[in-house]
Amino acid sequence: MTRVKDLIAYIDEIAPFCYQEEWDNSGFLIGEPDKVVKKIGFCLDLSAQALESAKAECVDLIITHHPVIFRAQKSFTAGNIAYEAAAAGISVISAHTCYDAADGGVNDVLCGLLGLENVKEAEHGSVKSILRCGETKITSAVSLAEKTAQVLNTTVRLSDAGRQIHNVAVCGGAGGDLWKYALSGGADAYITGEASHHEILDACAAGLTMIIAGHYETENPAVFELKKRVTQRFNDVETAMLKYKNPVEYIR
After folding, report:
1. Cα(131)–Cα(190) distance, integer angstroms
2. CA atoms of 246 and 252, how far apart (whole Å)
3. Total-model pTM
4. How far is 111 from 98, CA to CA, in rounded Å?
5. What is the Rg, in whole angstroms, of the alpha carbon atoms belonging to the chain?
6. How many CA atoms lie within 13 A of 25 on its CB side?
7. Which of the residues 96, 129, 130, 233 has an alpha carbon 20 to 30 A from that of 171?
8. Buried residues in 167-200 as b, exposed as e (16+ CB within 10 A)
9. DSSP E strands: which ranges in 122-231?
10. Sequence-separated (6 or more) residues with CB below 8 Å from residue 152
11. How far apart are alpha carbons 205 and 149 in whole angstroms?
12. CA 220/CA 45 separation, integer angstroms
């Protein structure tokens, strides 16, 4: 029988919790480690919709990317998602920045979707870098932006620094503040989920093209990959993607 603690150990094996940033809260966050697991649900965020889906699917354990408990909380009362999950007897493991940095994690999945080759880590001072940098055959900033929009099925923002593209750095999610590390790592273009207006301006002035592709869009594909890996490892347990809608809509 597979127990919650077996999943904790496996996630720690493929995305070691020690890789997480110091401000993060990845790990085993809710539940009983000895509880038997018959079905696992996966989602980027444990939203109210995802939790209702987990209840309908009779899930014992949920694995998320974003931690269900992130910032310090002084109370857990009815209506709080963490409280509601615990009240329903559902355990939760979250693999956030540790899965961003992990081999085969968020950013390696993103590199694969973009067709980058000879991918390497681009250092940014952490135990294991979140950033990846690889080579592309697409030399035009506009063409790279179009490719990104196509493979992620989204609308992107482009800040073209006017240079030919050869090397591309990626960081799913909110990676705008890491643009200097992308540049020092040899990137001509940087693809991330979120960046502020001034981060984009500064990067462009320094000669780095930036493509902003959405937080959800750059990270959610890796949740499917995580489900695939867990399913292959624990063949006695059912797995399911939970119903979860991107909270951001694009209005034209």
Report:
1. 10
2. 17
3. 0.95
4. 17
5. 19
6. 11
7. 233
8. bbbbbbbebbebbebbbebebbbbbbbbbeeebb
9. 132-135, 157-159, 167-171, 189-192, 209-212
10. 113, 213, 214, 217, 218, 221
11. 24
12. 10
Provide the token pair at 245. 């809608």
Contact yes or no for 209/161 (Cβ under 8 A): yes
pLDDT in tens, the chain (252 residues): 999 999 999 999 999 999 999 999 999 999 999 999 999 999 999 999 999 999 999 999 999 999 999 988 888 899 999 999 999 999 999 999 999 999 999 999 999 999 999 999 998 877 799 999 999 999 999 999 999 999 999 999 999 999 999 999 999 999 999 999 999 999 999 999 999 999 999 999 999 999 999 999 999 999 999 999 999 999 999 999 999 889 888 887
The residues, ordered by sequence, that sit 6+ positions from 91 with a Cβ below 8 Å of its Cβ are 4, 28, 30, 31, 32, 35, 37, 60, 61, 62, 85
Share of the chain residues as helix, strand and coil, in percent rounded to the nearest 5? 35, 20, 45
State the number of CA atoms in the 13 A half-sphere of 151 facing the CB: 17
C-alpha to C-alpha distance for 223 and 43, rounded to whole angstroms: 7
Report the distance separating Cα 6 and Cα 11, nearest Å.
9
Task: Find the farthest-apart pair of alpha carbons in the chain and give their distance in angstroms, rounded.
Answer: 57
Could you identify the residue written with the tokens 């939970």?
242
What tokens does 251 get?
């209005």
Residues 26 and 17: their CA atoms lie apart, in Å, by 6
Helix (H) or strand (E) run with residue 238 in it: strand 238-241
**Structure-token pair, residue 229:** 């890996």
